[in-house]
Every structure is written in C-alpha cells, then in structure tokens.
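Escalation from tier 1.

The customer reports that the assembly of two entities below gives different structure tokens on two consecutive runs. Tier 1 could not reproduce it. I'm attaching the input and our single run for tier 2 to review.
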Amino acid sequence: MPESDAMGRPLTPRKTEMRLGREAQARIGQQLRAMYEAVVNEGVPSHISELVRRLSEQDNGAE
Amino acid sequence: MKLDPAIRDQVLGAVPSLRAFAISLCGNIDRADDLVQETLLRALAHIDSFEPGTNMPAWLFTILRNLFRSEYRKRRREVEDADGRYAETLKSHPEQTGRVEFNEFRAALAKLPPDQREALILVGASGFSYEDAAAICGCAVGTIKSRVNRARTRLADLLAIDSVDDFGPDRATRAVLAGGGRS
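Tier 1 run:
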C-alpha cells in the first residue's frame, strides 16, 4: 500500500476515504435507480387509481 | 366542486414514484401502500392548498414524508423491518442487477441513517433537484448535499465498492464490513 501518490505527495487516509470515485458514484447511482425503477414500473395499483378516481368525484375530495 | 381532471392526472402520474419513495422509507410494501393511500387522502382533502403550476410530485412527497415521520415517531418501539420483505413482495427484480447484488444493495441502504437515506433517494433516484429535496425535507440545500455525500461514501464502504484509489487505506476495513453485511 503506497504511502504517497504519483507526485510523491503523502496520502492521507482521510482524503482517500472522503473522496468517492466517479465510477463508484456511477455504480451506486445505477443500483439505486434500478431498485427504484422496479417499483415505478409497477405503475399505479388498481386500488389506488380507484381511490383517486372516487375521491376526485366527491365534493372537494374530502372524506 | 369536483377535482379538475388535469390535477387528478398529475396526482396519478406521481403515484409510481411516490410508491417507490414510500417503499424505500418503510422497507415494506404493505406499509408503503398504506402510507401512499393516506398521503393521497390528505392531499385530495387539501387540494386547495396546492398552487397550480407548482411541482405536484414535490408537494405529494412532502406530505408523505411528514406522515412517515410522525408515524415513525409513534412506532419507534416496534421492531424495524430493516431487511424488509421488499424483495420478496416485488413483482419484478431490477434488470441488469443480479438478485444477490440487489439484496446486498438493499441491505446496505437500510443501514444508512434515515436522513441520509431519504436525501440520497430523493436526489439519486426520484430525480429531484437539491433545492426541491431540501424543500421536501424542510432543511437547507447544503444539508441535503452533505447528507447525499455521506450516504454515497457510506454505501461504497458497505458494498466494498472501490473508492477513488485502488490502494485506499481503508480497503481492508471495507472488505470486513462487506463480509459482515452478508447473511
């Protein structure tokens, strides 16, 4: 494990720990969106669309 | 007065994303659907306070988040469904991601502090701007930015995703954490 970078500057553990690479960020973002999209792709469940439709026909939508 | 169909369609259009957000907060589909339903009841009962032309998803997300927060305080003593039945109850699994990898990611996400998790989801998955996410969470934009950064760093640690340098000094630590995270 090198103690310094290519320019001979010392590596501080804190710095490497804090900086997250572009690739790591991209992978996290991709997994996050894949997880989210799996639910989004289910669309609107029928009981919810019925609820919204019913409420929107009522006075002020109040129940 | 009946609800304007255009407004109703905006509400319906926001539901899939609202559900995904609710599931990521609750880790449980049944509770999430209850939360979405309660959010919609409340939103439609107070639709007059929505300003047409403003961001409908952000308005609904704010209501849902506030409901979740107050419910969470009430239920605090209940055992958290950290692992969730999330994956089991999903009809489909994310494509391009293996089941094991998906489960590991979900477990890691569940380990984040709630503030960091919601910030990351709002910005990284729901696609809100930092400004909208800050408005939804009722905090400063800078706070959201720092929560998102901390959430990403912590996730990378938990998942042992290599950080900026391959020779990061905490690599061994990450490997241990990742190993401990699998069950």
